[in-house]
């Protein structure tokens, strides 16, 4: 899929402006700063495309920075999954760093602020600190420790660092303005005491920087020029700028905030996604119904389609929910170009051809038909598909009593078996419950390849699989994981809107032999049924990626 030139949005405009003014000597450096506390999801994909994509568009660089300032919740295991997911999406960080790489510098800078009288050790507990911050429109009140002497602050901070005090007993706060109209500037906490082992720095630290103290400074240390994040950090920007100003950082980074990506029928909260996994609602972080990168990947979403969607839906400052059908239409467009066509029968019904010839040994004749792998891409070539007198067709493709406008197979009706022969239903065989278990048909030997000698027309072409050659398969059909467009809108709890029927497993599917050679993870089109991804671990398990119908087009038409 084509990736068009530099997109037009407020971020690329800012870069153009900076480049024209020579602000960073034309340098463009961004970063993607996830917290290693979970798997990445489709919202992160958007951030990755914006961060790495903007750098790429301007021949700049983009680092991956693991924001490991919360030793309680972080695990090294998530780091490797984050790196893999970024790579799968098609990007490569110029470097991988951790906020903890900068703990020494951050500490020294904090000492500088203390020396300048711009930070102090507060002995109040967390509850008191939040209670005295005031609220929007109401000023906060000064801590009784706010005017400690510099020497005392230096001494206490050194002892905090040395592990002399219990968790939560003291914090280091910036000394800005407890009456500031922006709450973020009311003496925010820079360090808290946590006598805990960190997954990278071990026992070295008893104090850990807050995200607010680490973030802008880490950008500055790395030389980030355009620090891109989501809108919830907008009110933090003046604080980040204040820190950099007090530290007299030359050519400081500037932060740009864009609206988070939210999709209909989807949640992106890591906490709630984790609950789906622990409650067993889904089978894991990579369940094909999950909006994680791993889930989308296992479902068969191509990375190119996710990238194109993230780029082309735009990067704005207005929060909105994008239709999941729009993402699916990018997936379908990409797969239409790349996926090979195969025949598979998901709910099989036996079709028997009366008078089917036998071969020299008296066994039913096997004919091999050459079919095109992908009409959109001649380079994919052709393959041979076996055809015999006993076939599988879809149960849906036969009706004993056809409803109006039903043009598929019914008694006396002639249809085309794709690329093979025209057949006419003659009689049915039923089981003890009166269910049709077999349709017996005649066939026109002069329609070999699916084109009758006399050029007569039939209204329907159906897919089929030779019974003798069919492979057994399981097909997983997926519906939305949440029934409502905005999960949780009614009750505040998204999990109240879970769709109890989000997966249907069809365990007796019959597929053509070529599918036995499908590579793990390969996505193919099952003719007439949709796109299906071969599972990456379980052989002969196929996940429906998307159906064939472009629902996004109909949604747009409806306006
Ligand atoms: P979550 O709410 O899922 O825990 P988070 O924002 O806490 O997400 P981080 O690991 O801190 O997760 O996010 C790393 C980067 O990804 C941040 O820059 C964040 O702004 C961005 N990001 C997270 N979710 C989205 C989203 N839905 N849309 C766009 N960007 C996102
Ligand atoms: Mg976060």
Automatic annotation (TrEMBL):
Keyword Acetylation: no
Positions of the Glutamyl/glutaminyl-tRNA synthetase class Ib catalytic domain: 28-336
EC number: 6.1.1.18
Protein name as annotated: Glutamine--tRNA ligase
Protein family per UniProt: Belongs to the class-I aminoacyl-tRNA synthetase family.
Taxonomic superkingdom: Bacteria
The keyword Aminoacyl-tRNA synthetase is assigned to this record: yes
Domain Glutamyl/glutaminyl-tRNA synthetase class Ib anti-codon binding: 339-444
GO molecular function, one term: ligase activity
Keywords: Aminoacyl-tRNA synthetase, ATP-binding, Cytoplasm, Ligase, Nucleotide-binding, Protein biosynthesis
InterPro entries (UniProt xref): Gln-tRNA-synth (IPR004514), Gln/Glu-tRNA_Ligase (IPR050132), Glu/Gln-tRNA-synth (IPR000924), Glu/Gln-tRNA-synth_Ib_cat-dom (IPR020058), Glu/Gln-tRNA-synth_Ib_codon-bd (IPR020059), Rbsml_bL25/Gln-tRNA_synth_N (IPR020056), Ribosomal_bL25/Gln-tRNA_synth (IPR011035), Rossmann-like_a/b/a_fold (IPR014729)
UniProt domain tRNA synthetases class I (E and Q) anti-codon binding: residue ranges: 461-535
């Amino acid at each position: 899929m084509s990736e068009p030139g530099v997109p037009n949005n407020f971020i690329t405009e800012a870069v153009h402006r900076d480049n024209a003014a020579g602000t960073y000597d034309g340098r463009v450096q961004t970063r993607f700063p996830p917290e290693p506390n979970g798997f990445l999801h489709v919202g992160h994909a958007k951030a990755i495309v914006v961060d790495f994509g903007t750098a790429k568009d301007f021949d700049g660089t983009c680092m991956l920075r693991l924001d490991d300032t919360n030793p309680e919740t972080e695990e090294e295991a998530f780091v490797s999954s984050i790196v893999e997911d970024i790579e799968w999406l098609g990007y490569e960080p110029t470097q991988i760093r951790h906020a903890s790489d900068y703990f020494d510098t951050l500490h020294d800078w904090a000492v500088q602020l203390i020396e300048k009288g711009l930070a102090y050790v507060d002995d109040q507990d967390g509850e008191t600190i939040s209670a005295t911050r005031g609220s929007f429109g109401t000023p906060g009140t000064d801590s009784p420790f706010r005017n400690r002497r510099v020497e005392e602050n230096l001494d206490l901070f050194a002892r905090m660092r040395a592990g002399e005090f219990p968790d939560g007993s003291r914090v280091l706060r910036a000394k800005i303005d407890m009456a500031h109209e922006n709450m973020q500037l009311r003496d925010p906490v820079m360090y808290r005491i946590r006598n805990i082992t960190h997954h990278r720095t071990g026992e070295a630290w008893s104090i850990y920087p807050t995200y607010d103290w680490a973030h802008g400074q880490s950008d500055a240390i790395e030389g980030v020029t355009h620090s891109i994040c989501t809108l919830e950090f907008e009110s933090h920007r003046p604080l980040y700028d204040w820190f950099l100003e007090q530290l007299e950082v030359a050519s400081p980074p500037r932060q740009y905030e864009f609206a988070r990506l939210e999709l209909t029928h989807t949640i992106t909260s890591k906490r709630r996604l984790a609950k789906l996994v622990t409650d067993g609602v889904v089978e894991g972080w990579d369940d094909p119904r999950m909006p994680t990168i791993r889930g989308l990947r296992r479902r068969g979403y191509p990375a190119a389609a996710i990238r194109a969607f993230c780029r082309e839906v735009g990067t704005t400052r207005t929060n909105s929910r994008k239709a999941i059908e729009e993402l699916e239409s990018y997936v379908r467009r990409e797969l239409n170009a790349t996926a090979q066509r195969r025949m598979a029968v998901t709910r099989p019904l036996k079709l028997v051809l009366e008078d089917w010839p036998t071969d020299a040994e008296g066994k039913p004749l096997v004919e091999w038909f050459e079919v095109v792998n992908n009409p959109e891409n001649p380079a994919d070539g052709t393959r041979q598909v076996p055809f015999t007198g006993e076939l599988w067709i879809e149960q849906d493709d036969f009706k004993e009593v056809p409803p109006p406008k039903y043009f598929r197979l019914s008694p006396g009706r002639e249809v085309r078996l794709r690329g093979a022969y025209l057949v006419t239903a003659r009689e049915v065989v039923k089981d003890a419950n009166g269910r049709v278990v077999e349709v017996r048909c005649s066939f026109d030997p002069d329609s070999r390849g699916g084109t009758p000698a006399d050029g007569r027309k039939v209204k329907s072409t159906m897919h089929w699989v030779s019974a003798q050659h069919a492979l057994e398969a399981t097909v997983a059909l997926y519906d939305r994981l949440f029934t409502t467009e905005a999960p949780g809108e009614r009750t505040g709890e998204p999990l109240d809107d879970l769709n109890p029927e989000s997966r249907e497993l069809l365990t007796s599917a019959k597929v053509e032999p070529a599918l036995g050679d499908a590579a793990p993870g390969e996505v193919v089109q099952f003719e007439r049924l949709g796109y299906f991804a071969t599972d990456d671990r379980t052989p002969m398990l196929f996940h429906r990626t998307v159906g064939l119908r472009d629902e996004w087009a109909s949604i747009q038409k409806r306006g």
